[in-house]
Amino acid sequence: MSVAVDYEDNTASAIAQQMAETGRAARAAAAELAIAGTRPKNDALAAMAGHLRAGEAEILAGNERDLVAARKAGRNAAFIDRLTLNAERVEAMAAGLEAIRDLDDPVGTVTETFERPNGLRIERTRVPIGVIGIIYESRPNVTADAGALCMKSGNAVILRGGSDSFHSSAAILACLQAGLRDAGLSGNAIQMVPTTDRSAVGMMLEGLNGCIDVIVPRGGKSLVGRVEEEARVPVFSHLEGLCHVYIDGAADPAMARDIAVNAKMRRTGICGAAETLLVDSACARTLLPDLTGALIEAGCEVRGDTDTREIDPRIAPATEDDWSTEYLDAIISTRIVDGVGGAISHIAGYGSNHTDCIVTSDNATAERFLREVDSAIVLHNASTQFADGGEFGMGAEIGIATGKLHARGPVGLEQLTTFKYVVRGSGQTRP
Amino acid sequence: MSVAVDYEDNTASAIAQQMAETGRAARAAAAELAIAGTRPKNDALAAMAGHLRAGEAEILAGNERDLVAARKAGRNAAFIDRLTLNAERVEAMAAGLEAIRDLDDPVGTVTETFERPNGLRIERTRVPIGVIGIIYESRPNVTADAGALCMKSGNAVILRGGSDSFHSSAAILACLQAGLRDAGLSGNAIQMVPTTDRSAVGMMLEGLNGCIDVIVPRGGKSLVGRVEEEARVPVFSHLEGLCHVYIDGAADPAMARDIAVNAKMRRTGICGAAETLLVDSACARTLLPDLTGALIEAGCEVRGDTDTREIDPRIAPATEDDWSTEYLDAIISTRIVDGVGGAISHIAGYGSNHTDCIVTSDNATAERFLREVDSAIVLHNASTQFADGGEFGMGAEIGIATGKLHARGPVGLEQLTTFKYVVRGSGQTRP
Question: How far apart are CA B357 and CA B335, in angstroms?
Fold first, then answer.
């Protein structure tokens, strides 16, 4: 930590002072980083990877401290798994930084050029956003990934991970900052909130006196509400993924089954995992038992409304809450809808504008779904689990944005930049 | 007005109910408009232009009502001028709608395509944002321009113009809604806030229960503060334009004079007008008297710090406030800075990230300014008055966005859209 911090001094005024100082330091680092060029940024990423590998013992020691506390606090197995680091996972983080080093630097790319009749040459050029604040879960690897992505795109970043991962993240951060300094860059380009006190989240959402340009909140329902209420700066929401698979009457049965099972069960804990299966009333009687059977066989609990349970008694009863629950677990809700129009209505009412899929052999029906469903990613005959920057060919990503503006869908390096118009003239004045 | 409104019932609960109804009607109209296609939108624009021309008498009667009230309220001449309509200005509005009709429809444009090794075809496709709320000054022509731009880009819009223009805007709105209905579209695609009560602005900034996707605030300092404090939805700020012209030591004297005078005086009331002239200490003694003389001759008051007044006693004293004042009038502040670095620092401290210009014959110095000044538009050897969507070749625009995200610089049709990823597969599941 480059800002001098007394971790024991958690009075409100001390926290406010530390946070303000963190913001000012980030703003200064951002101005420097924005014009640093690709070379030192790549050098820093390589050095960070080296420090992560060399610092494995310290990182695992910090992680052990977090794990002891998390077990004592009775965290569940999935939580502990996301929190746990080991030699293999440290190496994966280091390799991840090297992969980010190898991605193209988006800063300075000219995305449009207009030559005007008066001789003005106007370029639309990618530039860093400035200072990015990231609020995320107790997943230590995000500290490395998110810090590196923001830095490579020329931004300073203030990280606030879940408090259960504080010591793991602090040890990782020390490696990242050492790498920055090795490359002659300011260690303040990647900072961590110097306290686990939750008031710091509120201060970030208010923008630290203009020192944060955008907040990236990652998390579930409790964070959604807080962001909506408290955010005073722009937000790239990475919040709920309430993804739907709609099986149309004209779907190929085998494809429907494969996609439904993959969308739900390949990995249940990611935001692109399906949470609700919508089945066309035209094919429910013939297809639903097969779909349910395949899901149950894959280890999934299937919940449904009365209509589905009349068709297949293995389906457990669903309540109204199920349609808006992101299980992130081996549970799926299912409902019979009246054709593609019914599916579109259900998704409009309960979806989270993340990722939704239609399975059908009827292209006209598919195009209607793709056009009318208002989500970041809409798929025809492909699993929702493809909602991933890597699968889109973007390289690493911070997550899938569910907001509509600036960054929608996978947020990689390009989405972490903005642009300016650069106009070159020869003395033109406007008549 | 398609929402039944009793203009006399301005109790808080009645306003809240009217606003909520306006929001719901906009959301429904947006869903319809998003998939309407180009033809009915263009038909509506043509019909709107016809209704404006046919409705000239009603529009001018509404305007007269506003003008009587504004004169009684002691509004100044510039204000009255912006508020005033006449036959020529009504015709200009109608012609403006026809020009928007003739622009390409951005909706449905595929801006990127990725073919993935697994056979997935991913398209990034422009889609409307949804519902746009616009808060603007007492300029009746904005009602037509902004309403038409939002509609053509597939968005529903809720307009809240300055209360001094309420009756002018209401008469214009009636023509726009008649045009929408002629084309078979919902009149609710363009609505006006059904009250002049200022509480309605606060309700818009809070997003009308999720019915507004983005707010476009246009205005000066008082609106800036209110937006920062109250906005709970994304914002495309069109706020202050504190534009600078920096005259470098290596500037051509004649070009410096022409650009300084044009940037300030061509039109003083637009956001791209220069407000501060920065002069390199290397050339202040030789160039400043010439620059000051030309500005004074053009009718401009020049205010400056002690250093400038020692060089040219015609310069009036400036206070600290002058560096952050958007005059929108024939006044300019001037200051001597220490080369391009001094200019960049001054702009970082006092600018509004809108439009800034350097005049120099030294390309390396120019490139440093273009790279380091963090504004939507940076110009080399060209007047700041080129900060305009038309001058950029975008056609009509709502204004110049001073925020950093999504829309930066001129906001035309494209900037009023967002995008979705459309993925077409043939049964792909993720391994």
Answer: 15
Q: Are residues A114 and A207 in the same domain?
A: yes
* CA distances to A47, A163, A164, A176, B246 from A1, in Å: 17, 16, 18, 10, 39
Contact A383 B428 (CB under 8 A): yes
Which chain A residue is nearest to residue B406, measuring alpha carbons? Answer: A406
pLDDT at B9: 60
- Element holding A316 (H helix, E strand): strand A316-317
For residue B359, give the 3-state DSSP assignment.
strand
Percent of chain A with pLDDT over 90: 85
Closest by CA to A269, choosing from A218, A329, A221, A219, is A329
Task: For residue B426, give the H/E element and its range.
Answer: strand B417-428
Query: Do A114 and A180 share a structural domain?
Result: yes
The CATH number covering residue B267 comes to 3.40.309.10
* Residues A163 and A26 occupy one common structural domain: yes
Pair A297, A329: CB distance under 8 Å = no
Comparing alpha-carbon positions, the chain B residue that sits nearest to A431 is B266
One-letter identity of residue B89: R
Question: Rounded CA gap, A1 and B101, in Å?
Answer: 56
Minimum distance, in Å, between the CA of residue B55 and any CA atom of chain A: 33
The nearest alpha carbon in chain A to B366 belongs to: A424
One domain for residues B225 and B261:
no
Residues A105 and A220 in one domain: yes
For an interface test with B, which of A120, A123, A224 has the most B Cβ atoms less than 10 Å from its Cβ? Answer: A120
DSSP letter, residue B218: B
Q: ∠ at Cα A242 (A376, A299), nearest 5°?
A: 130
Domains of chain B: total: 2
Residue appearing with tokens 């509506």: B44
B301 or A395: which carries more pLDDT confidence?
B301
pTM, 2 dp:
0.92
**Cα B431 from Cα B338, distance rounded (Å):** 60
pLDDT for residue A2: 41
Which residue range is the domain that position B279 belongs to?
A: 243-391
Query: B166-191 burial, b if ≥16 CB within 10 A, otherwise e?
Result: bbbbbbbbbbbbbbbbbbebbbbbbb
Is A72 a member of any domain?
yes
Please give the biggest Cα pair distance in chain B.
79
| β partners of residue A210 | none
Residue A22 CB neighbours (<10 A): 29
* Facing A421 at nearest CB: one of B130, B214, B409: B409
Residues A202-257 have pLDDT tens digits of 999 999 999 999 999 887 777 877 887 888 899 998 778 999 999 999 999 999 99
Size of interface A-B (CB pairs under 8 A): 194
C-alpha dihedral, B230 to A241 to A373 to B213, nearest 10°: 10
Taking CA atoms, what residue in B is nearest to A214? B405
pLDDT digits (tens, 9 = 90+) for A330-365: 999 999 999 999 999 999 999 999 999 999 999 999
CB neighbour list of residue A11: distance below 8 Å, 6 or more residues apart: none
Q: What is the pLDDT of residue A9?
A: 60
Evaluate the CA torsion angle B411, B27, B191, B78 in order and state its sign.
Answer: negative
Q: Confirm if A172 and A144 have CB atoms less than 8 A apart.
A: yes
| A424 contacts B381? CB cut-off 8 A | yes
| Chain A environment of B229 (Cβ under 8 Å) | 232
A131-135 and A156-160 strand pairing: parallel
> Minimal CA–CA distance to A233: which of A203, A276, A188, A266?
A203
CB B268 within 8 A of CB B380: no
pLDDT at position B4 is 43
Q: A119: alpha, beta or left, given left = phi > 0 and alpha = psi -120 to 50?
A: left
Q: In whole angstroms, what is the distance from residue B193 CA to residue B15 CA?
A: 10
Would you say the ipTM is above 0.90?
A: yes
Same domain membership, residue B305 and residue B207: no
